[in-house]
Amino acid sequence: MEIKQFRLTNLGRFSELEAELAPTAALNTNVTVFIGSNGAGKTSILKALATSLSWFVARLRSEKGSGSPIPESVILNGQASALIEVSIFDDHSKPSSLDSDSESAIYHWSLARTQKGKKAKFSSNLNDVSRLADFYRTALTQNEKLGLPLIAFYPVERVVLDVPLKIKERHSFLQVDGYDNSLNQGVDFRRFFEWYREREDSENESGLPQDVLDKLLETLGDNNDVWHKLQSLMASSRDRQLTAVRTAISNFMPGFSNLRVRRKPRLHMSIDKKDQTLNVLQLSQGEKSLMALVGDIARRLAMMNPGLENPLHGDGVVLIDEVDMHLHPTWQRSIIERLTRTFPNCQFVLTTHSPLVISDCKDVLVYSLDNGELTPVPSQYGQDANTVLLDVMNTDIRNAIINTRINDLRDLIEDGRLNEAQALLQGLEAELPAQNMELAKARLLLRKELLKHAKNN
Ligand SMILES: Nc1ncnc2c1ncn2[C@@H]1O[C@H](COP(=O)(O)OP(=O)(O)O)[C@@H](O)[C@H]1O
Ligand SMILES: [Mg+2]
Q1: Is 267 or 348 the better-scoring residue by pLDDT?
Q2: Which residue is closest in CA terms to ligand 1's atom 3?
């Protein structure tokens, strides 16, 4: 499933906003990124898409289900009604006799909301969302191995504060439970933990528990034939869904492996970081939130795709607000590449404030939001972060006051006002670190000019 395009009318700050999402005819990528300053409307776009898709999830669960309404506060001030329209393409629902761009695989639906006591300007049309949900419900009845499309929204509030240790109830997880809380809070660590523990228990029933394996490894050593035989036997009884989650996490976080539930000394989740074993609570905020995000996407895909050998290849739509949040610059740089490599069939709609996110990926559709208008941004692949900041994010790359003074310094040197230049340079040297590049350049230039001046006199 993928969103082909959407249109918002009188929603948030937009009176009308329309955009096509990747992949488009011109750009074969699964990633669209929205950039723009605070208040530009990035979050509003993702929330609108999530609201619209929530109707698909609701109608998949039950025929007459209702998704989330558009909140009244989101209707553009001064207007009576707001409207969200989406066009969705769903490859699975198209009869195999038709080619891929067949109209019957495209679903349009619209969701309207009117202020209380006002006359409605728009009305909802949800026939197609029912048609699509119906297709999945019918197909699921005939084929239990059918995959469901993942639909998830990760808002800025997705921060993981703690890992719940007490699990009150144990329940089994159904395929559609992959949608639980997927559109309102994103990362659901409590569910993640419950689910992981349940899968691990059943994995252990058909194999040996990790603690026993650790002991065996200690006694046998890892060069022992029996140990190798045991390892390959264990590998074949590994839980496919857990393997998917473990693989996704190690793809994103090199050096991390072996996420598992430990019962001693207390119930907790632990992970190996290089040669250390850590309680996941001991991880940094960045590590924790990346692990939770990736683990959550992988878990939901695993639950929803019981028929796939590799559940990470399941399809769906993933919306992530401020994807760079808490990430070290190195991780920001590679986040899109890792997302698309780990989840190759998901469509991603992202927002970011970081130039690094969009400068390291060749195939990505970037839109800049400014004053309620959308402009596609040319590829920023290979550009350095400063150029991206200057060109597309309209941001000074340096503190504005320092910037002006450095420019003044250059002008003074060029105009031959060398005494004044020297005084300004001294002032700047007192404030900036000695190795500052711009100062070093100015110092060199000034020395040259002083020499020239001395020669001429
Ligand atoms: N009902 C509304 N009418 C008019 N403007 C609104 C309304 N709701 C929100 N806004 C505007 O939209 C902006 C919020 O957009 P948001 O999507 O959160 O921006 P971003 O995520 O890009 O920082 C606010 O700054 C506000 O000015
Ligand atoms: Mg925002």
Answers
A1: 348
A2: 76
Better-predicted residue by pLDDT, 386 or 116: 116
Mean pLDDT of the chain: 89
Q: Is residue 41 part of a domain?
A: yes
Ligand 1 center–CA 161 separation, angstroms: 27
- Do residue 14 and residue 142 come from a single domain? yes
**Which are the contacts of 400, defined by CB distance < 8 A and separation ≥ 6?**
none
- 43 in contact with ligand 1, CB cutoff 6 A: yes
pLDDT at 203: 81
Strand partners, 35: 368
Instruction: Give the C-alpha separation, 308 to 380, whole Å.
Output: 35
* Co-location of 423 and 304 in the same domain: no
**Looking at this protein, which amino acid is placed at residue 227?**
W
Q: How far is the CA of 231 from the centre of ligand 2 (A)?
A: 47
Same domain membership, residue 143 and residue 10: yes
Nearest ligand (C-alpha, residue 156): 2
Q: Does residue 39 line the site of ligand 1, with CB under 6 A?
A: yes
Contact at 8 Å (CB) between 10 and 81? yes
Q: What is the pLDDT of residue 108?
A: 97
Query: What is the mean predicted confidence (pLDDT) over 42-49?
Result: 98
Specify whether 131 is located in the same domain as 59: yes
192: domain range?
Answer: 187-309
Distance CA 175, CA 297 (A): 14
Q: Domain boundary at 309, 338, 371, which? A: 309
For ligand 1, whether the C-beta of 77 sits within 6 Å is yes
DSSP 294-311: HHHHHHHHHHH-TT-SSG
Residue nearest (by alpha carbon) to ligand 1 atom 13: 39
pLDDT digits (tens, 9 = 90+) for 294-325: 999 999 999 999 999 899 999 999 999 999 99
